[in-house]
Design a protein that fits this description.
The chain has 389 residues and is of the alpha/beta class. The chain folds into two domains: 3-54 and 301-386, Alpha-Beta Complex (Aspartate Aminotransferase, domain 1); 57-294, Aspartate Aminotransferase, domain 2 (3-Layer(aba) Sandwich). The chain contains twelve helices and 17 strands. The strands form four sheets. Strands 4-12-11-10-7-5-6 form a seven-stranded mixed β-sheet, sandwiched between helices. A four-stranded mixed β-sheet has the order 1-2-3-15. Strands 13-14-17-16 form a four-stranded antiparallel β-sheet. A hairpin with a 2-residue loop joins strand 13 (322-328) and strand 14 (331-336). Helix 4 runs parallel beside helix 9, helix 7 runs parallel beside helix 8 and helix 10 (299-316) packs parallel to helix 12 (371-386). The two termini are 36 Å apart. The mean pLDDT is 98.
């Protein structure tokens, strides 16, 4: 039996997989089981920030693996402490809670916001305001936070205490803040799964102001936008705001599972001993890999991400068969004339692996993708988009 057939028989059918089995990768190049070369324009959905089997990341991870792979949170370990220190020093946040995924990072963010607001204003202040078309994860509570009804169907009852308002609608957000006794305002600065849609600066700044004026924790979900993806270390840094709670995951680990919830001065002591925990959270191997990622996201590197982004936007904007390009940095959505799925399948046949988000082709290449590899992939995408039916 082929791997494809075994997977189909035994793995829960929750994913629509492409008909490709990948066996190896180096940088932005994958090798299929048939020996075919693929350019990776998805980086495992924005996870392998430095591509596959990156030398520095591999060295950091294997050095730690050879020392200690797990201790539990009953003991101190260096990678966990040093990663938290690096994240705080680079963001100005004060404390970090480590978990294993984006959904868990958001679960922690929600717990912090609720506890802060319950202590400050009373436990009827539990509602988190999120945005329509958002995505915050697949656990029942982060699903409840996700403002897309089609994800909710048949999983009721959801966790109470979430309302979603239209993105970029300041009046709707203002109304919700005034009426729902909010415990937090939560958004992605670029809605990733929702179709690579950046929020307007006006809306982000209005949300920050409303949060500050009403003492409501401002929560930014940087699971996808974080860790250099948008050309800044965190996406909120494009807007000059100072969130109270930032959740991240995906690119942070460079390919190993890690989530982080960062807390500002205002909420840094909300979680006390026993309030939250995770057996794997802060795992030394994952933290060693993440530290090697975070350490390299300096201004010079982020400027290169911006340069690559500018190249992609200018190459695709106005090209034949392309109706528009959205996003920030190397988080890119392409509205195509041909159906996105069809474009992605044909790119795959031509050796370029892309993603979709809603009705768009989505690109999340490794942040260090070499310029010539990026150009090769963009040329394939352009030619596939330009093809007449
Ligand atoms: C992917 C994603 C999540 C969920 O992350 P998991 O690691 O799959 O739990 C949450 N929020 C955003 C914005 C995401 O893109």
């Amino acid at each position: 039996m082929s791997i494809t057939a075994i997977d189909k028989e035994y793995v829960a059918g929750t994913y629509g997989r492409f008909p490709v089995e990948l066996v190896a990768g180096k940088g932005s190049i994958f090798t299929g089981s048939d020996g075919k070369r693929y350019i990776d324009m998805g980086s495992g959905i924005g996870v392998t920030a430095f591509g596959s089997a990156d030398d520095a990341w591999l060295a950091a991870v294997t050095a730690q693996l050879n020392k200690l792979q797990h201790t539990s949170n009953l003991y101190y370990t260096e990678p966990c402490a040093m990663l938290a220190k690096a994240l705080c020093e680079k963001t100005g946040m004060k404390k970090v809670f480590f978990s294993n995924s984006g959904a868990e990072a958001n679960e922690c963010a929600i717990k912090v916001a609720r506890k802060y607001s319950a202590e400050k204003k009373g436990d009827d202040h539990y509602t988190i305001i999120t945005l329509v078309n958002s995505f915050h994860g697949r656990t029942l509570t982060t699903l409840s936070a996700t403002g897309q009804d089609h994800f909710h169907k048949l999983f009721n009852p959801l966790t109470p205490g979430f309302v979603s308002v239209e993105a970029n609608n300041v009046a709707a957000l203002t109304e919700a803040v005034a009426t729902c006794k909010p415990a937090g305002i939560l958004f992605e600065v670029v809605q990733g799964e929702g179709g690579v849609l950046p929020l307007t600066a006006e809306f982000v700044n209005a949300a920050a102001r409303l949060a500050a004026d009403n003492d409501i924790p401002l929560m930014v979900d940087e699971v996808q936008t974080g860790n250099g993806r948008t050309g800044k270390l965190y996406g909120y840094m494009h807007f000059g705001i100072h969130p109270d709670i930032v959740s991240t995951a995906k690119g942070l680990g460079g390919g190993l599972p890690i989530g982080a919830t960062m807390m500002s001065e205002k909420v840094q002591n909300v979680l006390a001993s026993g309030d939250h925990g995770s057996t794997y959270g802060g795992n030394p191997v994952c933290c060693a890999g993440a530290l090697s990622v975070i350490d390299r996201l300096d201004d010079a590197f982020l400027a290169e991400v911006q340069t690559k982004s500018e190249y992609v936007f200018s190459a695709l904007n106005g090209a034949k068969g392309i109706k528009g390009v959205s996003g920030l940095g190397l988080m890119i959505g392409i509205k195509t004339v041909r159906p996105a799925k069809e474009v992605v399948m044909e790119c795959m046949e031509q050796g370029v692996l892309c993603l979709t988000a809603k009705d768009k082709v989505r690109l999340l290449p490794a942040l260090n993708i070499p310029m010539d590899t990026l150009k090769e992939a963009i040329n394939v995408i352009k030619s596939v988009c330009a093809k007449e039916e």
